[in-house]
Amino acid sequence: MSSQDIPEENLPAEQDAHGAVSVADEQDPFADPGLPPHEHRVQDIDERAAKRSERVVAFLFTLSMLLTVGFIASYVAIPADKSIFVFPIGHISALNFALGLTLGGALFTIGAGAVHWARTLMSDVEIADERHAIEAPPEVKAKVLADFKQGAKESALGRRKLIRNTMFGALALFPLSGVMLLRDLGPLPGTKLRHTLWSKGKLLVNMNTNLPLRPSDVAVGSLTFAKPEGLEETDEEFQTEIAKAALMIVRLQPDNIKDKRELEWAHEGIVAFSKICTHVGCPISLYEQQTHHVLCPCHQSTFDLSDGARVIFGPAGHALPQLRIGVSDEGYLEALGDFEEPVGPAFWERG
User: Fold this and answer.
1) With 0-12 CB in 10 A as exposed, 13-18 as middle and 19+ as buried, what is 244?
2) More confident residue, 270 or 15
3) HSE-up of 70 (CA within 13 Å, CB side)?
4) Rounded to 5 degrees, what are φ and ψ at 99?
5) Residue 88: is the preceding peptide bond cis (ω within 30°)?
6) Separation CA 166–CA 61 (nearest Å)
7) In the chain, what's the furthest Cα-to-Cα distance?
8) How far apart are the C-alpha atoms of 163 and 185, rounded to whole Å?
9) What is d(CA 321, CA 304) in angstroms, rounded to the nearest whole number?
10) pLDDT per residue over 197-237, tens digit each?
11) Does the pTM of the predicted model rise above 0.90?
12) CA distances from 64 to 102, 176, 180, 345 (A)
């Protein structure tokens, strides 16, 4: 249907830059119809309705404050290992569930309060403004400032003190959630990275049999993995401690040991080195009997166990730490102290 088939009074109108309305013609059948008449909201004409909207917004901001307090309380009070059943998800961490629920609720209620405030109480009059150059002349700057002041006035922020105070309270309290998360940055590790469970008198326990090792249990050319006496897989800190204390036990002919200190720290050719690769901390498990080399399966770092476990290939930065060992009065292999340097990958203050 062309514009000629439409009655003139039903044709869309075009609003020029000054707000005047003109009828579309044959040369411009798709003219901008202009803005519809402004319809007042119930809050604009009924102060009781405005008060109800004000209380709704204040309630949402207050609820955000309560949820933020709940986030902090959950972070402090709920144990990290506690789980709950939530249908239909199943068993989940109670701490994670509480933190997610309270943090998400605090954010949602701030947003919902702001949206409800804008839609029901702030001015909704549509204003058409002309485009202008990027560099604003002084009169435009003055107009922007005047518009800002007018907008601030129409927002009723000064008159609606209940909304203003609760909004400021919600926005001021909410960042405390992020501050509480800084708690996970501590406590500082101190010297934990420099020490393991090994100490003088700790027996070397076979990882497979869970029994203390005797020198006779380690054959020439064999590779055995050991852990400190008293460390059990059921312990809560087992993974953390074994990642630092895991040992490789190898028996060499004393004449094949090239490094003097390695020979002094061995017992009858039995040497004990850290199992943790000094590149990125992978467990070393591949042993070549003829060359006395061990290979890390992650990035192929290779260490010579007959020469102080020095690096002969790959990206590892330094040799494997050696544990000084001896024999107890009962005839079991025992540690004579801890490693003299941190195990695993290097860190900025290694020593």
Assistant:
1) buried
2) 270
3) 19
4) -65, -45
5) yes
6) 6
7) 114
8) 36
9) 12
10) 999 999 999 998 999 999 999 999 889 999 999 998 888 88
11) no
12) 9, 12, 16, 45
